[in-house]
Amino acid sequence: MAHERTDPAWGTLLDLGERAAGPLHLRLVRALRAAVVDGRIAPGSALPPSRALAADLGCSRWVVTEAYAQLVAEGYLEARSGSATRVRTAAAGPAPTYERRPRHESWKPEFDMLPGMPDLRGFPRKRWADAVREATGSLTTAEFGYPDPAGHHGLRQRIAAYLVRGRGASLDAGQLVVCGGTLDGVLRLSRTLRAAGHTHVALEDPGWSRLRAAVTAAGLTPVAVPVDDDGLRVDLLRREPHVRAVIVAPAHQFPTGVVLTPPRRAELIAWAREMDGLVMEDDYDAEFRYDRHPVGTLQGMDPERVALLGSLSKTLSPALRIGWTVVPPRLLDGLHAADAVGSPPPVIDQAAFSGFLESGAYDRHLRASRLRYRRRRDSLLTEIAERLPRHRVSGAAAGFHLLLHLTGCAAGDVVGGAARRDVRLADLAEYEAGQGGPAPGATLVIGYGNLADAAVAGAVRRLADAIGEAGGPAS
């Protein structure tokens, strides 16, 4: 209740005006009244004791008591014996309003099937809270100072060991820099390449648009290179002689879901060696593969030509903002110089994840997540097969999104129809780098990572209705 508030209004700015505006106690009355009416002092807030406010203003206590008495008489304040003077609940004017631009994020659909979001319900809250508590208690006094720009030493050691053990990478902890996520790592590496004389960076098309934005922000020109069923078209990459760096997601390309085939992997490494170039490997969704064991890293094939980027955004939560970049030794000095003013994630969070890794909790969480996503994927595929048998699915072997190739209707029409049914979807064309904006397409990118298991059937039912409304066969 507002009248139960006890926050004293110590921080309220009071504009008392010039001396010529009248006696000080009247100027204080006007300043307090304006603060109440404007809503800067909230209804129910306690005002400072008269002696304390007088000391802050450098005036006599009489000035304050007179001002308070006047505002009590006017009905703006209320004074009770033995209690602080407070703003009357009905005294303040309406809260100031501001023009707000509509934001896409403000829509909270019943069924959110955008790709890229993990199962936030599955975040291991208690285990993570325990890890944070243990980290806070075990950090040395010195570790509470300014952090090492490369990241917490213990975490770098443990991530390096995990990548060697679980991802087939080849590195030592000195090559690993802790950063704020994959996007942050790409930005840092792009700055390093620009300082080394690079002018262009190739990216997969279709692909994550924010990668293009990061490359551009670093002062480099993004070059789109198409992806087919075998992954990046390295033959087309070779037609770009001014490109000596490329960003790829070989384990599970976003958004097509294809895996870079062994011949393409070998061809890409050969290209990097011939061009004296660099492959930036986005280890996207690598831990979540359902048809076989996760594919090993490109970085393990050639640590001198491949930089490996990973994060916790898909495995734990994007809110943690913890990622890593593994770079060839020749780029380390340049990477540190290019990010001289950067800052790693909070040390306590880094230490918490270090303990989370060391205890085996991270591996257990990944195993549980893999089973959960696989069951949800199977349920989604079953529902699509029953309700939408004439529409083809691809890219479902890993991660937590898939492609639905539509028959007889445009993806944009289905996205709009689904939105009217409180379902959020993405059109594959949104991720294409076409110069004239997304072209009309017939493929949906359907995410199921953060979709509740019980919601799968209802979401597909509404999707089928939207497809039928758009003119496509719904059964």
If you had to describe this structure to a student in words, what would you say it looks like?
With 475 residues, this protein is α/β, with parallel strands linked by helices. The protein has 14 helices and 16 strands. The chain has helices at residues 24-38, 50-57, 61-74, 125-138, 153-167, 182-195, 209-217, 234-237, 262-274, 329-338, 347-358, 361-387, 411-420, 456-469; strands spanning 77-78, 86-87, 111-112, 176-179, 200-205, 221-228, 231-232, 245-248, 278-282, 306-311, 323-326, 392-394, 401-405, 423-424, 426-427, 443-447. Strands 4-11-10-9-8-5-6-7 form an 8-stranded mixed β-sheet, with helices on both faces. The protein has a 4-stranded antiparallel β-sheet with strand order 12-13-16-15, covered by helices on one side. It has a two-stranded antiparallel ribbon with strand order 1-2. β1 and β2 form a beta hairpin. α2 (50-57) crosses α3 (61-74) and α4 (125-138) crosses α11 (347-358). The longest helix has 27 residues, at 361-387. The protein is globular. The two termini are 55 Å apart. The model is unreliable at 1-12, 98-104 and 435-439 (pLDDT under 50).
Number of helices: 14
Q: What is the helix content?
A: 25-40%
Low-pLDDT runs of 5+ residues are: 1-12, 98-104, 435-439
* Termini separation: 55 Å
Overall, the morphology is globular
Largest sheet: 8 strands, mixed
* Class derived from helix and strand content: alpha/beta
Radius of gyration: 29 Å
User: What proportion of the residues form beta strands (DSSP E)?
Assistant: 5-15%
Number of strands: 16
Mean pLDDT across all residues, rounded? 87
SSE series = HHHEEEHHEHEHEEHEHEEEHHHEEHEEEH
Strand arrangement, major sheet:
4-11-10-9-8-5-6-7
